[in-house]
Write a structure and sequence with these properties.
Elements: E1 2-8, H1 13-22, E2 26-28, E3 31-37, E4 42-48, E5 53-58, H2 62-69, E6 74-77, H3 89-100, E7 116-119, E8 128-134, E9 137-144, E10 149-154, E11 160-162
Antiparallel strand pairs: 1-5, 1-6, 2-5, 3-4, 7-8, 7-11, 8-9, 9-10
Length: about 170
């Protein structure tokens, strides 16, 4: 049995998880608590950490796949051409451990080494470069392409975001 991500209709994550569990599947829907304010009150609400997605643990066989896909609120499996791709157990366990530890966390854009990023805080706000690094030692490389020279800075303490394709 492996974990798979399913894409859900907007704001259907909790319902999908409940329906899948009712069919005997194991599910994981990471939730985060946020304070929301309306004109007349404030309320602590639980929202999906990854809006639009729910995780299901299953044996990826045609009949199981069909049962999941015909569940109300599910759009498709996440993967190439709508075919589900197994998620390593370790990745799900890491998210579960973070949630169980009750440390403050929030969704963050996915960044990968080699990707063009922009610093979005501090004195270097707006500086763009290529993300490089090894584990916790991430660096930003800023290049002058014409002279083929680069400089690098450690990203510790800086918030970065992916640069949109131009």
């Amino acid at each position: 049995m492996n974990w798979f991500a399913v894409q859900t209709r907007s704001r259907h994550e909790k319902m999908v998880a409940r329906l899948l569990e009712g069919q005997g599947f194991s599910t994981f829907l990471p939730l985060t608590s946020q304070m929301r304010q309306w004109s007349d009150r404030k309320k602590l609400v639980e929202l999906p950490l990854f809006p639009g997605y729910t995780f299901v643990k299953m044996v990826y066989q045609p009949e199981q796949r069909l049962r999941v896909l015909t569940t109300e609120g599910i759009v498709s499996f996440v993967g190439m051409h709508g075919q589900g791709m197994a998620i390593p157990d370790r990745q799900i366990e890491d998210i579960q451990n973070l949630l169980a530890a009750k440390v403050p966390l929030e969704s963050h854009p996915f960044l990968k080494v080699g990707q063009r990023v922009r610093i979005r805080s501090g004195s270097l706000n707006g500086t763009e470069g290529i993300l490089v690094g090894h584990e916790s030692d991430r660096m930003l490389v800023v290049s002058v392409e014409l002279i083929q020279r680069s400089v690098s800075i450690r990203l510790q303490g800086y918030e970065v975001e992916p640069v949109s394709a131009r």
